[in-house]
Amino acid sequence: MEEIYAIEMLGISKRFGNILANDHIDIRLKKGHILALCGENGAGKSTIMSILFGLYEPDEGVIKKEGEVVKINNPNDATKLNIGMVHQHFKLVDTFTVLQNIILGEETLREYTNNLNIFKKSFNFLNKHLFKLIDYKKARSEIIEIINKYDLHVDLDKKIKDISVEMQQKVEIIKMLYRHNDILIFDEPTAVLTEQEIQDFLKILKNLKKEGKSIIFISHKLNEVFSVSDEITVIRKGKYIDTLLTKDTSKEEISALMVGRKVDLNSKKHQKSIGEEVLRVEHLTIIDPISKKKVVNDVSFNVRKGEIVTLAGIDGNGQQEVIYGITGIKKTSGGLILLNGKDISKFSIRERMKSGISHIPEDRHKYGLVLDYTIYENSILDRYYEKPFSKYFFLHDKEIKKYTDHLINKYDIRSSNEGNTITRSMSGGNQQKIIVGREIEREQDLLIAVQPTRGLDIGAIEGIHHLILEQRDKDKAILLVSLELDQVLTLSDRILVMYEGEIVGEFKPLHVNRETLGLYMSGAKKAIVNAIKEGNDE
Amino acid sequence: MNKIKSFFTSFIKKDATKTVVTSLWCALLGLILGFIILLIINARDAAFGMTSVLGNYLIFSSHSDRLNYFGQALAKTAPLIAMSLSILVCYKAGLFNLGGSGQYSIAVIIITLLGVGANMPWWFVLIIAMIGAAIWSMISGALKAFFNVNEVISGIMLNWIALYLTNGILSSNTSIWDSAHSESYRISSGSNSFIPSIGLEHVFAGNQIVGLGMILILVVVAIIYILFKKSTVGYELKATGFNPDAAKYAGINYVKNVLIATAISGALAGLAAVLNLQNGFTSWRLSSVTPEIGFQGISAAFLGGLHPIGIIFSSYFIIHISEGGSMITDLGFAPEVASIMTSVIIYLSGFTAFMKEMIRKNEIKDELNRLNREKEKKS
């Protein structure tokens, strides 16, 4: 017997100008299954889903729902076919309440009713010709039913701008369920969530599946893909590669299919002897000037030569502030920062960099690059004043070009117009390579890397991991801030978990698992830690 | 032939070319709109009015008159160039200098006191006037750098303070104030404070207001060009302007750069006053509005594509049109008509960015058409 598919997309092609975004892609979603759609950034995942949701019209190919050919010209058609989608960036009205957002476009209406018979005539007129009232009461009871059924608890009367991202995502899910959608598309749903929230989200997905919904789930995080999906479809550079049963495949196989070659994200680093102390932070405290809260509270740790120390934690627990304090971008309220034994806590940003800090900042657009500058200009951003790049207030174009071309070659920075390319026009991965290259080439004792792989695809992540490990093997001290547990576990020699501005746990990656880390990161477990390690304890 | 063609296409595609083309388009559009306004007011004389606006000094029949007035146009262009550069320097550093008028006024006080009053050597007056204007401008800069006060607002307020300071100081001093005309005395051509004419007056039919100032302003243009193209100071200023956060990350001192930018731009506004007053061309008139040049400078800077070289041409264009405009009052056009016309042109200069975008879109369309044609050929 032929299997019935909830959705079949056969031979779909879509061209944007010169670019073939989708080249004969086949997607088959079985009823009541979860299909994961994997591929690198720009592989065409979002495009094919947008076609299914009616945002784009395909140039070729057919879409079948339960074996019947359907035409989806716009999102309204998709909704009529009970197809719902949660976009990567949520489509919610910030100033509306949760309830209003859920029913927006699908309002249940009621007529004007009243006890004032005098106005009856005019109300009749209104009911007939003008507008009706929204029946919030009925909508609310329907939504509460959904919430209880799927365990999606949100406060219906809060405004969207006042609730967390995780809650907003739940709102998006309720929105689909309220519209009785049975085919649900999620476009990179976990990109905005923390580790703990991701676990909750995956539970919700399983619940939805249990209730008979068919789900397409776009992601390039393989851990999640393997924990919930039934099948995996891989696309690469717009082409359909393969569809595999999750239980018959492995993460290694899928990532190799995604990138087109074998990748090794768990690049096993060889043991390295740890040298003398480079950075020592003692009792560092930072008070936020506006909220007057201690965003960093009495933090002490050190980083030694040949060691990667990672500050792990859920976003916003003071990791960034520690780095701002060390690099001088934010004022510290107390504590010592010793670099090679010298107290730098009173130094200016430039003096600190000169005394031996390289810094890959977390936000490449805000801090890392002047986007309107060319690659030439950006590659000397924090050393333009040094010889040989300038002398007596004058820039040496020749030296700058020579150095930039060296960076471009060594770090494989790709752009349309070589060094003259304005960095704004480049891809995120290549922008990041400029910063990573620039900071590594400064050859300082301490390399600070804050979320160095944020928003990059697997190929680029692998490259940057490799570069960071190489620096460690060159006896540099490395301070890493990462929100991704995989990265924390593969790269670190020592993990410091931060929670609400304090270091609450210190671990060796070999002696800890994801679950334990998660408990410390969420504040469920706590230890008092002075993370200064004396001597060579290895 | 192909070589010439490829050179031409690469020339067309250059960003600089696009800026020039858009600026020209804006000027042309402004002229057309101006002509329509003339037609509405007085259709009979509109054509002649337009030719006199465009022709300016060229409509004079005598050769020496033409040269004389050409000289005058050049002498008026120089201060406008200085003012535009003042706007440009601030703009590159991410600031908007709306206080040019005030800085200009402060320089006027210094020039009149030292030049007319004390007959000091011209170069000394020039330097002190520029320093004075720079310090005045740095008030705005310091407020911005230390207290994050918006420089536009502080600039406007300082304009009015400077205006009444100038009115008050100059008119209360009888040795420099011509109360009959309610204006300050001019710097006479024989005095120490007069910028030497270095023989240029012979070229321009005895017009003494053209002089060393012309060369001076070209040198200043070159300095500003090099500042932004080649120097670390310019690199820092631009980085601060484009992305203050990244500049901070790179260890560039924000406070220092804001102060430097406002100081340079104040000095340039002061130079505008020097070039206007120290050739005996104008003096300070009792006034209740801030000097117009501070705002004309903004238009010239934008019409010139925010490029030092472009500013030379845009400044001359604006002066040419407004001078020409002042000549059409004889034809029954109110003097304000000239101002309307120039304003239209100037406002259109604000469209430069918009026009650039239009050109870019057209290019994309052409490229797509070309690709389609190629595809058709293949199939």
If you had to describe this structure to a student in words, what would you say it looks like?
The complex is a heterodimer of chains A (538) and B (379). With 538 residues, chain A is of the alpha/beta class. Chain A has 3 domains: 5-107 and 137-259, Rossmann fold; 267-356 and 445-538, P-loop containing nucleotide triphosphate hydrolases (Rossmann fold); 365-443, no CATH class. Helices cover 32% and strands 25% of the residues of chain A. In chain A, the strands form 6 sheets. A 6-stranded mixed sheet of chain A has the order 6-9-10-3-11-12, with helices on both faces. The model of chain A has no long low-confidence stretch (mean pLDDT 85). Chain B has a domain at 63-319: ABC transporter involved in vitamin B12 uptake, BtuC. The model of chain B has no long low-confidence stretch (mean pLDDT 86). In chain B, helix 5 packs across helix 12 (254-277) and helix 13 packs across helix 14. By secondary structure, chain B is mainly alpha-helical. Classes of the chains: A alpha/beta (538), B mainly alpha (379). Chains A and B meet through helix 11, helix 12 and strand 20 of A and helix 10 and helix 11 of B.
Secondary structure: number of strands of chain A: 24
| Unreliable parts of chain A | none
CATH architecture of the largest domain in chain A: 3-Layer(aba) Sandwich
Helicity of chain B, in percent?
over 70%
CATH topology of the largest domain in chain A: Rossmann fold
Briefly summarize what is shown.
The complex is a heterodimer of chains A (538) and B (379). By secondary structure, chain A is α/β, with parallel strands linked by helices. Chain A is built from 18 helices and 24 strands.
Notable characteristics:
heterodimer; A: 538 residues; alpha/beta; Rossmann fold; 6-stranded mixed sheet; 18 helices; 25% strand; B: 379 residues; mainly alpha; ABC transporter involved in vitamin B12 uptake, BtuC; two-stranded antiparallel sheet; 74% helix; globular
